[in-house]
Amino acid sequence: MGVLCLYVTEIFRTEPFNATIFNEWVMEGKGLALQENLKLYKKLLSLGIKIVFLTGRTEDQRSVTATNLKKVGFHTWEKLVLKGPSYTGKTAVAYKSNERKIFEKYGYRIIGNIGDQWSDLLGTNTGNRTFKLPDPIYYVS
């Protein structure tokens, strides 16, 4: 079965990335959908592609993340993968590579991998194609 890994992408403030402020903002549940992503999402669903959201957000943000995704138009997905406590200290590349490896282990074939940060796209098990989205708001180095 084919799966497309999408990453929870949000429009954030123009200040340098600050994890504390970012996590407070996440808990507000006011993330916006990029309209191009929403259009692609709907097209992929119509083609029978299963969507996976893989994010560096933590498990304690699952409810607000799922609610926010639905509020902005992302109503259906195969999985919403958030970072559990066992990933403390691991890089985003290592975490996301491992999660993609798990999907492939269970029979999924990653046909596309879309992200706005290089850490979304680097590492292993990245799929048939990768697509780097521009992010004019912040950059994670």
Automatic annotation (TrEMBL):
Domain of life: Eukaryota
InterPro entries for the chain: Acid_phosphat_B-like, HAD-like_sf, HAD_sf
Keywords: Signal
Pfam families: Acid_phosphat_B
Presence of keyword Signal: yes
PANTHER family per the UniProt record, alphabetical: ACID PHOSPHATASE-LIKE PROTEIN, VEGETATIVE STORAGE PROTEIN 1-RELATED
Name under which the protein is recorded: Acid phosphatase
Organism annotation: Dipteronia sinensis
